[in-house]
Design brief:
The protein is an alpha+beta fold. The protein contains 8 helices and 9 strands.
């Protein structure tokens, strides 16, 4: 009895093994390559021919290799590129691709790891060629979009000629930067350039300041000279008018004129209070002290 159960168990296990080697499920996001004795023979749920679900294969003779049907992303390793102006740049790029021919993909690449290595080499080679024809500024900002279009077309052409069985969807640069060993020298060069620009601006400002001060001093000198000239002219006109008035007045009354001039002489000589004069008592200079305004 136990022996019968053992035989039945062995038969059941064998049936399960055969069934597991016969039936398999293809997810709608996957595509299955049927490999017969090491040679890919057909594809299930291929691009453009959706057919997911439960499938059959020849047990023990055929194997199933699953590949992703969706677009795949690959980040390429950093690559140092020499631009057309001999500037070195470290470029990080990524590529998106899709397995369009699973049979050819399997024949050429076998698995995703091999595919990643091969595609990465294609991308880096294309980046060196395309970016090497552009300057650093064009790579960083000026023509990046145009350069990426050219790189994508070049990578796609290389993939077709290598019969990789993939379609290149996009190639982009994530970052383009200077190598670490060059950054310090570039920063020093930028600092020197900024210092030179600042020195030029300061020199221009100092020159403009001096020009403004010189112009202001010139305006002050001209204004003062004009004011002095006008003052002297006005003073001269006033003195002339005073002299004319005195002359007219003195002509009408010579005695008063003589008296007025004597008073001016007294003020000029005695006004300070410390003047010593030696004169004859009967000097004409003091006649107005003795005889008053009517002295003759």
């Amino acid at each position: 009895m136990n022996r019968n159960w053992t035989v039945l168990g062995v038969i059941a296990a064998g049936v399960l093994i055969v069934l597991s080697q016969t039936f398999f499920i293809v997810d709608q996001r996957k595509q299955a390559v049927i490999v017969r004795l090491g040679e890919p023979v057909r594809v299930i749920n291929a691009p453009g021919d959706p057919d997911p679900g439960l499938k059959l294969k020849v047990p023990f003779v055929e194997n199933v290799v699953m590949f992703d049907k969706r677009s795949l992303a690959l980040e390429a390793a950093q690559e140092e590129v020499i631009a057309a102006d001999q500037e070195r740049l470290v470029v990080d790029a990524f590529v998106r691709y899709r397995i369009s021919d699973p049979l050819q993909y399997y024949r050429t690449l076998r698995d995703e790891q091999t595919a990643s290595d091969r595609i990465e080499r294609l991308v880096n080679s294309s980046l060196r060629q395309i970016l090497g024809s552009a300057t650093k500024d064009e790579i960083v900002s000026g023509r990046r979009g145009e350069l990426m279009i050219k790189t994508k077309a070049d990578v796609a052409a290389r993939a077709r000629s290598s019969r990789l069985g993939i379609d290149i969807i996009d190639v982009r640069i994530k970052r383009a930067d200077l190598p670490t060993q060059n950054q310090e020298s570039v920063y020093r060069r930028m600092q020197t350039s900024r210092q030179q620009a600042a020195a030029e601006l300061r020199a221009q400002g100092e020159q403009e300041k001096r020009e403004i001060i010189a112009s202001a001093d010139k305006e002050v000198a001209i204004t003062l000279a004009t004011a002095r000239q006008e003052a002297e002219t006005t003073r001269g006109e006033g003195d002339a008018q005073r002299t004319r008035l005195f002359a007219q007045s003195f002509g009408k009354d010579p005695a008063f004129a003589a008296f007025y001039r004597s008073m001016q002489a007294y003020e000029a000589s005695l006004g300070q209070g410390d003047t010593t004069m030696v004169l004859s008592p009967d000097s004409e200079f003091f006649k107005y002290f003795d005889r008053g305004p009517n002295a003759r």
